[in-house]
Each structure stands twice: as structure tokens, then as C-alpha cells.
């Protein structure tokens, strides 16, 4: 009996690991999408995969049945996703269409009733956008994901450098030069620098050796950022 129990535990552990790896692989095949941006079809497929995965862990059920069902669901999702890229109508049917809740500063109560979107929902999502007054909004669009896109009125939005006619340098992602004490030669070459230059910069910022630096990067303005390794 004891040997039988140990064997069952071994089988359960093996099935759990296999199901986990397979579901992880299946979700990767379905593509990268935020949970909040899943279409209804994506959500249904995800829920069904979760249910099938749970049933597959039953010791009395053969694992291959769950794998076949998951493969069918993933194939359906991939095919539908491909077709929706080609067909605007199919995409609109599966995902719906955005709804304009506030148009030209006026709340469209008819659209709110159609989408069963309450005033409380609107005020909550506006507060999440740091907008306290509905009167400050020119357009508010309820996206198919359920998120609210908000466009403030021109007179209430913050002043930008563009408004003041000030030239703004083009932004570029910072480039990592040292990670965990190791200089990145490829990235140094990308900015037309070498390790000799990096060593000079390290000394200028008070370090003796790259191994003392946990992370170093350079931004689009040429400014360096250093973060030293914790001692211990």
C-alpha cells in the first residue's frame, strides 16, 4: 500500500510538471497579450485550457486526452487570430468596437446605456487617470479591453515644451555598459566607445574596477548612470 501511494505521488508530480510545461508552451503559442486586453474569444480559450489542465491532473484520466484538447484549442485560437488580422468584420465580431463615452465634452448617455456602463464606472476610471472633473474631458473612449482612453480639453492639459516652442532632443533608449561588474563590449561599440574610455569614466566616478559596479548605462544625452554593488 505504501509503495502504491509513493507511486501515485510520483505520477502526480510527473503529470503536474508535464501539464505545467505544456500549458506554458501553449500560452506562448497563443501570442503576447496583456490579460486586460484579451478578447472574449481569447479569454474563453484560456479558461477552457485551465479547466482541461486541471482535469488532466486526475490520476485516473490519461494525460494524452488533455494534451489533444489543449492542442485543438490552441490551433483554433491561432487560426482565428490569423483570420481576424485579415478580416475587419471578424475582428469586430470577436472583439467588439470602441465606444465613445464623452464626445466634444458631452457625455453620451445613450452609448453608456447600450454598453451597460454606469456613471460610477466612468468617474472611477477618470480618477484612475488623475482627472477629477468630467468637464475637463474632451473625448473619452471605452476600449474593447474595458479600459478608458481619455483626452483632456486643450485648456486643461499640461503645457508641453512643444507649446512653448522649445526644441526637444529626440529620445533614445539608454544603453547598458556594465551589468553585474562585466563591461558589455558590444554596447560600447554601439556608441563608438571602447573599454579604455569606460575605464576612464569608472575612475572619474570614484570606482577602481568595473567589478565594483553593478549597473552602468548611458542615456541619449550622454549622461552616465552608475549603481555600485552592495557590499557583503
* Radius of gyration based on Cα positions: 27 Å
Low-confidence stretches: none
Number of strands: 8
User: In the residues, how many domains can be counted?
Assistant: 3
Task: Quote the distance from N terminus to C terminus.
Answer: 51 Å
Percent of residues in β-strands: 15-25%
Query: What is the mean predicted local confidence, pLDDT?
Result: 83
Mass-distribution shape: flat
What does this structure look like?
The chain contains 8 helices and 8 strands. With 232 residues, it is of the alpha+beta class. The protein has 3 domains: 2-92; 99-152, bsu07140 like domains (CRO Repressor), CATH 3.30.240.20; 175-228, 2-Layer Sandwich (CRO Repressor). The chain has a 4-stranded antiparallel beta sheet. A 4-stranded antiparallel beta sheet has the order 6-5-7-8. The two termini are 51 Å apart. The model has no long low-confidence stretch (mean pLDDT 83).
Short characterization:
The chain is an alpha+beta fold.
Topology:
Layout lengths: L1 H28 L10 H17 L6 H24 L1 H8 L3 E5 L2 E2 L1 H6 L4 H10 L8 E6 L5 E5 L22 E5 L2 E2 L1 H6 L4 H10 L8 E6 L5 E5 L4
Antiparallel strand pairs: 1-2, 1-3, 3-4, 5-6, 5-7, 7-8
Helix pairs in contact: 1-2, 1-3, 2-3, 3-4
